[in-house]
Amino acid sequence: MEQEPRIGVYVCHCGVNIAAAVDVEHVARAAAELPGVVVARDNTYMCSDPGQALIKQDIREHGLNRVVVASCSPRMHERTFRAAAQQEGVNPYQVEMANIREQCSWVHRDKSRATEKAGLLIASAVAKAARLEPLEQREVDVTPGVVIIGGGIAGMTVALDVADTGLPAYLVEREESLGGRVAELNRTFPSLQPVSDLLQPLIARVQDHPNVTVFLTSCVSQVDGYIGNFEVEISGYGETGTPAGGDPASKSGTPRAGLSVGSIIVATGYDVFDPQRTPELGYRDYPNVITSLEMEERLIQGDLTVDGRRPERVAFVKCVGSRDARLGNPHCSRVCCMYTAKQARLVREMLPEAEVTVFYIDVRAFSKGGEEFYDETRSQGVRYRRANVSEIYRKRSAPGVDAGLAPRAGAAPVLLVAEDTLLGQPIEFEADLVVLAVGMEPRKNAGVIQKLLKLPRSADGFFLEAHPKLRPVDTAMDGIFLAGCCQGPKDIPDTVAQAKAAASSALIPLIRGSVPVESASAVVNGELCAGCAMCADVCPYDAAALDDLWGTSRINPVLCKGCGACAVTCPSSAIHLQHFTAEQVLAQVDALVE
Amino acid sequence: MSDPACEAKPACEAKPACEAKPAYEAKPASPEPRFEPKIVAFLCNWCTYTGADLAGTSRIQYPPNVRIIRLMCSGSVDPTYVLKPLLDGADGVLIGGCHPGDCHYQSGNYKARRRTIALKEILRGAGIDETRVWLRWISASEGQRFADTVTEMTEFLREKGPNPMRTEWAV
Amino acid sequence: MRSLIPVENEDVLSAIRGFLSQLLKAEVVDSVLVPMRTPTGAVTPALVSDAAFLEHADPLAPVMGLNAAPLAGRVSVREPRERVGVLLRPCELRALRELVKLQQASLDDLVTIGVDCLGTYDVSVYSAMRDDGGVDVTAYLATATSGDLVAAAGFAFRDGCQICEKPHAEGANITLELFGADLESGIPITLPDDVAHKLGLGAVAADRARPQVIEKVVAARTESRDERFSEIRERLDREGVQGVLASCVRCHNCMTVCPVCYCKTCLFRSQVFEHEPIQYANWARRKGAYRLPSDTMLFHLTRLNHMVLSCIGCGLCSSGCPADLPVGAVFRVIGQETQELFEYEPGRDVEEPLPLITFKEEEWMDVGEE
User: How far is CA A224 from CA A21, A230, A263, A540, A559, in A?
Assistant: First the structure.
């Protein structure tokens, strides 16, 4: 491996972007004197074809085995120069960049000092380059198949997309039937299509698909492995010893299956806010104060009566348990505005004589056709009132009267106390039926999945995507993807869209047949390792573990993401992070302190 | 020191920016050359290094006293990386990582926080000026914060004077 | 259960030997790790499986050349192994617990026997005392009863012992409670009921002065400690660690004898610190002069970083230092400050996680946000 360094240094002018603030000829001349440097040049645009050709030609003519490019950020062009060097047989990991544009010429105007700094950054890059070791681009084979946790609309959508490619999909649902939350709904917005029309065919397709295996009343109890090669254990859910809703990771359920798959999709959905946490709204105190989900049930039954009486005044209260930091839910649940408009519309249809009022903070009708639906709802006589409802209670007429009314007590109207935020006035409003538009919350047992799969969650408690914009269905764990409301509140079309995206992403490695893994991983020198296992304690990916036979640490290069936490933790320096070894870093330090 | 390079090189004179000096250089030129501290910065690849790049693409000016070494994570800053430059005479060491909760590797910055706190306490205990070591969370979007941090640190170290270790041979 | 080991003819040592021998015979343990006296009078730990050899056991010899915790680790760290009784001083017990956290020892098949420590001498001092006519064990043991832990006239305890405020054995499976005991009538002992049963020891509700004597000992030692700490702190603030440890020859003895320094090969003994010849020249040019051997302070500062949170204060580093440097006191001063920061007490409890491998999201929230 010991390879006498033969380094070529290329200082880029970047037009005048660098050359205006850095004396590029000067730093190139200085670089030529650095240990290991065989050739040093400057060029107008190193990233251009002629610039790259210059590097390739020097590699051939001077037998370079390392390349240093002093130009822009490695985030910009490292890939470019690695590829160029690789074409001439130089290992791409023996290319180093000195960032003299973003971190020098663009931020310093004093040319002499910028030039001096550029010289140091190049010396640092050269010092590192001289010590860079060749690394292999690594790939691992994958096991085809996807485990999908959650048999709601997201999970079923994923299962079908996976199964339609011909690969096995394993759908794990803790309840006795598929359908999830959507099965509890009456009609969709804005089309007012009965939910059963879209759900039943979907469930039927899932159940009939030869490539889909459905596990009902089941949960995932153990997950090992890594992208492309997960081992997933499925156990019974809610069996003796596993309290329903309790910890499905507890070992009490009987293992039902051990599956080998390449990807995992989390589609565990959401919990509905329990308005008992806002006792001022009178939920459970008065039978005519109900949640929106209970309203869905009544709409399915087609029965809106309260103790046998048709309500004359129906009120909807929005944002219950959403947009409220006090309750730990500062987020908007994104569906309540639309389902409230839908429910209000349906109430108008079923009770044409009733007065329907919606109390709202804001109306957010952003989904496709949403604003139109909202307009239509208002035009059909649903009154929208911008008001914060602070309390719901029932007036006591006279002592004992309530008791006298007992059989019909539930029908006695309640009073909504609110502040009209447009008028800035307190108001009171009497209603026979109040619907609390409850929001979405993370699953109460999301922590179980979090632990099993080592998934981070964001501050709101939902699972955290790898990048909010560019990788919205990926997670911090390669090979594990998110679909639906487990990642954050969504309506049905958004859920299905994310599910299809997650299915596509999950299928990429499976169809490709192999996955590239981080090449710069941590490596243990077994001779130095004393087996203290602190590396295993600090590894966020469970990549480090003590070898049963030798008692020394071993790092699974497939799991390792190269963060280097283990290397720092090891006092014996028995672990080094490739491409960022202590020797390399300290050589850089030495060059910079001069 | 005025800006000899600016006067000497036509390439630079072409840039009007040379006249409009940033605030940190606004002090009148003194006959004594100012003390220019050397700062070694270890920046995590995902947040602070990218934030420093953003300062660049936004052309936010800051003193050239900082020299950056890119690491993958603030959690991989070995105490030796801090000790070595300090003992060799660097005037300051800056460790930059993602804000708590934002670590690309889930928890590297939390570990870095403990490690740096321990290191600084040990330095303080050992009679070595630990205020020369700064830990800062700077995200990829905080180019301005990066520039401000470097400016502030440079001023702080300039005030403090050279690291005595620079001339102390017996360490 | 609290009991009493009977002492005959005021011979405390024989009583302890007898007790250890019973542990073997009753098969409570398969062997015992205990300080033994060699034929030439030196004292060294040995693993004894034949009770007959316990006649050489000398756990009361007031000398400490090494910390036996790593040895307890050696005989316990992995299977297959036997059940071993290990007789340890309090600082050795603490070191053992740190080693358990570091997976260098296992308590699974160990029976720890803690003994209150009355103070120990460096090996060289102990040799001189032997040359001088030997150690008066009766007088030494009398200090346990009174709690006035004084060294023999003309001699001084080890540096580490002089400032040790935790000389009382805590948390062992079996504890020989010397402090405050009337040793001539018996050695107070706390031990598990089943062990007592096997050994035929019954519960003895003797009146115990131990808590009061411990309080007295701790108070006196804390006072000496604080005095020493402020002296060292003042020197560190004035001269820096580079001044206090200026005479270091980088022999690495402090690391070698440190019971918690568990690396197989110290980084500072590896190639990492064998620099290229030209490198030394470069460094010399940079500062004008460059101290050799190189990286002396880096060695101490790195060892502080690696070890100080786990420093249990046995002070063997000072004992081992050929330049007579106060390495142990420096470690203890900085250790105390750093350990307090993490509310960590090394050697207290094997369940207490090492501070640098754990974290809380919500701590030091202001750090880094300035």
Answer: 53, 6, 12, 14, 11
